[in-house]
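re: ur msg from earlier - yeah i can do the pyridoxal-5'-phosphate complex, just paste it... oh wait u already did. ok heres what im feeding in:
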Amino acid sequence: MNYINDDLLQYPDWRGHAFLREEVARFLTHYCKAPEQLDPENVVVLNSCASVFLTLTMVLCDPGDAFLIPTPFSSSFSLTSYLYSKVELIHVHLQSEITEANTQPFQLTVDKLEKAMVEAKFKKQKVRGLVLINSNNPLEDIYSRDSLKEYLEFARRHDLHVIIDEICMLSVFDESIPFNSVLSMESLPDPNRTHVIWDTSKGFGISGFHFGTLYTHNKEVASTVGAFGFLHSISGITQHKLCRLLQDREWIDNVYLPTNCSRMKEAHKYITNRLKTMNIPFLNCGSGLYIWINLKEHLDPCTFEEEQQLYCRFLDHKLLLAPGKAYKCKEPGWFRITFADKPQRLKVGEWC
Ligand SMILES: Cc1ncc(COP(=O)(O)O)c(C=O)c1O
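and the outut:
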């Protein structure tokens, strides 16, 4: 990993060094279960998923255009997309209440997407695309293959691009839940408008590497996003280290993934058991790093002001529970717990 040669010390191909793009293509082919070998020419490597997302919005949109995004969602994108490319995010708000149309809490349905399109047209907003985060942060639910197809079909009907963030692909610790990558589909409804983002921040817990990658069948999009490597590339030395990491399949499959999975399971069980004992409702998903909990009962009145107060009270006790408002959740009272931590730290959190 600590190897350095002259090539690594020069400006690289802005799309990423060929050796890393080839390794990413092999890695994604294997872990996404792609029906055919993915093409390294369709891979772009930049310095984070956020950079890939922002450059995609810059490339696909004109200033003032918009993307639909199921909400709540991790909001670093929303702050920056407007600043970076003047692209707006239109929130498709999901509700916790179970109804005939909403058979699970915070369920994304095509009806909700269609309604958001109608409202956007009414407001004369030009919708260019749809952002999907699978699994979603903070909800951590994983889209079924059928739902995924429905969302992609919806996008095709409206000529929308789909940016799908699969950053949590390797963080599914419940083996009974299959992760369906769009890259595993035999045929995509609109391959030229489907763009996948992935990185090692969550699955390998190394956000400090600052690596993000795009896979798109659209060669024009790949080369234009690649040109932004001039601003957003990673150093050759880091690219070499990443390549060595992704190559080490024996360690990933036999050591890293099983250990990570069993630690995540244990930590998740520990926290969810405590939540059950305390009668705190939560969404029970078997993936990701977070648990979405409902503390409505502890807000009086149930408002965002009270939610903020509770958040501050937690902070006073050195406990960081992210409030739902930070994820643009429409209902006050929801909080995100990061459970993926060492057992000792989880216990300390509980004493707080
Ligand atoms: C779903 C999701 N995508 C992307 C990111 C950002 O990843 P990166 O650190 O590569 O910018 C995050 C960070 O929290 C995230 O939760």
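cool cool. The beta strands are 43-46, 66-71, 88-93, 127-133, 161-165, 194-198, 212-216, 290-294, 322-323, 334-338. ping me if u need the other ligands too
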